[in-house]
Amino acid sequence: DMGGAESYGKDQRRADALTILDLDEDASPDEIKTAYRRMAKLYHPDTNLDDSDAAIKFQQVTTAYAVLKVK
């Protein structure tokens, strides 16, 4: 059985989060934090008024950081 919620596990969520933050698999906690802060600032709704794409990207970056900082 391929697909379904069970197949989207912790490893896949981590891989997706690394992709969103443009990081390598072996990124350190400091690199993760730096990438998050840089991208959160870039896409923050306060600096991208009326830009719905930036708002979506900001949510993705925030969620990716949440996935990566939980070990």
Which tags fit this structure?
globular, mainly alpha, 71 residues, 62% helix
Please give the structural blueprint:
Elements: H1 10-20, H2 29-43, H3 52-69
Secondary structure: number of strands: 0
The chain-level mean pLDDT equals 90
The number of helical elements comes to 3
Shape: globular
End-to-end gap = 28 Å
What class do helices, strands and sheet pairing give? Answer: mainly alpha
As a percent range, the share of strand residues is under 5%
Reported for the largest beta sheet, the result is: none
Order of SSEs, N→C?
HHH
Give a brief description:
The chain contains 3 helices and no strands. With 71 residues, it is an all-alpha fold.
Question: How does this model look, in words?
Answer:
- This protein is mainly α.
- Helix content is 62%, strand content 0%.
- The longest helix has 18 residues, at 52-69.
